[in-house]
């Protein structure tokens, strides 16, 4: 990792059995170990979505081409990435079908049918699905032609309610990133240039990876009335007047698995936050010779029962050595490893190793349960603290345009400045540095003299190279 | 329902907010109420799959056309139903991509990469996904161009292990149907003509709908070495000899939602088994005038807290009458309705109505929790018993070919007979009656003189018209 981050990433994804290349260019196979992380992500978010009143539904993945074309910015943004079904059932289709790149169009077509009164609002729908965006340069989890995600789609009576919704979902994404994925994120507004095709405002959470590049980890959009007008969604308000609702959409994807890898990993491999780890604890029996076997396995069995509240794996393979197992589970990022051997049993103790830091200690067997609980909690917090420090220590503030360009070119990390929103200037920065305006952070509403336009005040903005 | 079953089905699916037609011919939108039933199905099955050692993974939905063509029977079976992506990212693709109709080909391509030693076996994978089969005549949930399902794919060292696996999964489907969906099913082997394209043996569960037609509710296949040979999957056995593994695949789909509707519904609408019902109990406050409101709502609130172990909905809408609510929740099949009004509170009682039978009784408020628990259990069992009787009372045994044809043509329901496996005869029955051989039930291995071939013994078989 410390030598060649990209190479490390590509290798660790495969070595740790997270994903594999598939025969179709740009797509991936998510292997059980990687999929299990995604399931843990889903479980947490799905619960939060339901607690906040959203309901899951499922919409067809094939969208008539004419639908995509109804919202002008939307079609412009997505056209280059579309996959098209032209033949089905042995015949050429009258109208080609687009494989959904996102579902605003088909969902809003249905909303027009389902919404008629203010009593039908807010309409709060979420969908877990696969989507296709034909990308030229792909990378496992981060950017693949097909990926898995959730997409929320809502309709509200007022602009204010829609804004509250978009921000509420952004908060849920932030909580997930920090408390579950242990990744510190910057919550902010996208510039006009970087916003979602069809949105009035796009919010995102931006994380810092271990190579100090940014990763957009989730987005939440206010769509205004763009889609409700394009798809003719109307409701009669309390005064019986027809109105177009205000809408939002928001999503996170399997890209989050990539985030977890790149935000926490090290030269040895993954470091998984306990909340997302498929196995939170691996128990490795140490059996010097056959006469110890029964005693050791009995203790291992007891321990595994004691820890049944946690996701525990007993690695009792005979064909590989304990050393091989240690390496494998280190590479796969299991937060805690417990060794159980004859000497440990004799001493009534267990050797517990943390993956997040270089720490290996003996603990009394009787304290196994409470100790594992507290250590997992510590690891969860420590990973977040490291991530927080990483972002803090690698963000540089600049006061001039030339410093912005110099810093982006010569120093890794985030660069903050006061920026006067301007598309041409933003494009220029991108050309000169390959960095982009990641967001205007929501927690800093200060304005100051901008770095890019003399005599204009700028908003606090963060630039970075990004995935 | 009693007058025109097909019309009833189409209407109730929409009236009960289960699904809606989408703008793309043959596809459907699964609405939140219908999707919630699917989620309950998923939760149960996913747990069972994991308990039996299977792991979830995700494979790309685009399959190179050449893959589909590798297994001869497989391509023949699926060719007429394929949807093809010919253009992506603004260009024509070099090789067209098939949208998966099922994933044997792409999964086995990966298995060839992942399996090398007997230590890699058994490989037990499941996938929850969408698939596409371009159908000419579609019906919501039962047959749509795109549907949601799970597909298990496994590889084993021996034929026997593969058979055990296929039968184990069939048992899980049977348990689901009977204990969770309250639908009695016949477990059996498919005829050569009806088996899955590429399987050596197909097993299925067959249910009887309320119009006495059969519905194939789940299938489990032994694939032999057909795919492992076609995709060159090999493993070195314990003697270091290269072998092709034996494989299985098995699946159930959103069609199960259709089964639940058609197996239990009546003229009033759905009857949902409590295990699958999105709302197991609906509480309807009865508020004759505003001065009762606070008292009633307080009691409703208490009751809803008392019943927090169940999926309870409080229908406190002001804009519709209690009668309107009763009809709506009857139509939507909620197992129990509880009315709470001032008189009930005065009498310290609750009026509980069952949806499965015409039963409405007062119970002491203090017994609400235990009573709701026992009533839900009773409903779950009663629906299964009704389904069992339905199948039993509507299965006719015949001893001659002419009786088989007559009975299939003139009487609704299943018809059993002893049948000598023969493709031409089976096709003849289909032509003469439109019925098909549903299965050779596993619980009857008797052989007797066959109805179709003089001097040949036949196996016990069940014919029926089917969805």
3D structure, described in words:
2 copies of one chain form a homodimer. By secondary structure, chain A is of the alpha+beta class. The first copy, chain A, folds into 3 domains: 5-264, Bira Bifunctional Protein, Domain 2 (BirA Bifunctional Protein, domain 2, 2-Layer Sandwich); 281-375, Rossmann fold (3-Layer(aba) Sandwich); 396-464, C-terminal domain of ProRS (Translation Initiation Factor IF3), CATH 3.30.110. Chain A is 36% helix and 29% strand. The first copy, chain A, is built from 14 helices and 24 strands. Chain A has helices at 5-15, 32-51, 65-68, 72-78, 104-114, 159-180, 226-230, 255-264, 290-306, 322-331, 342-346, 368-393, 401-410, 423-433; strands spanning 19-21, 28-30, 55-56, 62-64, 83-88, 91-99, 123-132, 146-156, 185-189, 201-208, 214-224, 235-236, 242-243, 246-253, 281-285, 312-314, 336-340, 349-354, 359-364, 395-397, 414-419, 436-441, 447-449, 457-464. In chain A, the strands form 5 sheets. In chain A, strands 3, 7, 8, 9, 10, 11, 14, 20, 21, 22, 23 and 24 form a 12-stranded mixed β-sheet that branches. In chain A, strands 16-15-17-18-19 form a 5-stranded mixed β-sheet, sandwiched between helices. In chain A, strand 5 and strand 6 (91-99) form a beta hairpin. In chain A, helix 2 (32-51) packs across helix 6. The radius of gyration of chain A is 25 Å and the shape is globular. The model of chain A has no long low-confidence stretch (mean pLDDT 96). At the A-B interface, strand 2, helix 2, strand 3, strand 4 and strand 5 of A face strand 2, helix 2, strand 3, strand 4 and strand 5 of B.
């Amino acid at each position: 990792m410390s030598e060649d981050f990209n190479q490390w990433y590509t290798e660790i994804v495969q070595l740790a059995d997270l994903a594999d290349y598939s025969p179709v260019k740009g797509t991936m196979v998510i292997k059980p170990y990687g999929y299990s992380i995604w399931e843990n992500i889903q479980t947490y978010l799905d619960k939060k979505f339901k607690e906040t009143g959203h309901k899951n539904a499922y919409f067809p993945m094939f969208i008539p081409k004419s639908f995509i074309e109804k919202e002008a910015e939307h079609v412009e943004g997505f056209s280059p990435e579309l996959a098209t079904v032209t033949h089905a059932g042995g015949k050429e289709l009258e109208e080609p079908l687009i494989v959904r790149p996102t579902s605003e169009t088909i969902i809003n077509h249905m909303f027009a049918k389902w919404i008629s009164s203010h009593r039908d609002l807010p309409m709060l729908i979420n969908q877990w699905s696969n989507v296709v965006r034909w990308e030229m340069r792909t990378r496992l989890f981060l950017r693949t032609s097909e990926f898995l995600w959730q997409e929320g789609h809502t309709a509200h009576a007022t602009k204010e309610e829609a804004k509250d919704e978009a921000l509420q979902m952004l908060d849920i994404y932030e909580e997930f990133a920090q408390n579950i994925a242990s990744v510190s994120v910057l919550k902010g507004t996208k510039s006009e240039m970087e916003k979602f095709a069809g949105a009035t405002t796009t919010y995102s959470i931006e994380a810092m990876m271990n190579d100090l590049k940014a990763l957009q980890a989730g987005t939440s959009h206010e769509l205004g009335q763009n889609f409700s007008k394009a798809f003719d969604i109307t409701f009669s308000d309390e005064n019986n007047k027809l109105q177009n609702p205000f809408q939002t959409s928001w999503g996170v994807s399997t890209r989050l698995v990539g985030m977890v890898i790149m935000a926490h990993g090290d030269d040895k491999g993954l470091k998984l936050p306990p909340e997302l780890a498929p196995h939170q604890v691996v128990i490795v029996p140490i059996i010097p010779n056959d006469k110890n076997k029964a005693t050791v396995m009995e203790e291992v069995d007891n321990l595994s029962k004691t820890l049944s509240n946690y996701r525990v794996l007993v690695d009792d393979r005979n064909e590989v050595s304990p050393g091989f197992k240690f390496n494998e589970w280190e590479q796969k990022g299991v937060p805690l490893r417990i060794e159980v051997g004859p000497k440990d049993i004799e001493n009534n103790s267990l050797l517990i190793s943390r993956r997040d830091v270089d720490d290996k200690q003996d603990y009394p067997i009787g304290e196994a349960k409470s100790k594992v609980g507290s250590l997992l909690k510590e690891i969860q917090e420590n990973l977040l603290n490291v991530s927080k420090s990483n972002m803090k220590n690698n963000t540089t503030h600049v006061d001039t345009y030339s410093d912005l360009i110099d810093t982006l070119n010569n120093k890794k990390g985030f660069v903050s400045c006061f920026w006067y929103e301007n598309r041409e200037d933003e494009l220029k920065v991108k050309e000169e540095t390959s960095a982009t305006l990641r967001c205007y952070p929501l927690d800093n509403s200060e304005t100051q003299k901008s770095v890019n336009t003399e005599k204009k005040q700028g908003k606090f903005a963060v630039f970075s190279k990004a995935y």
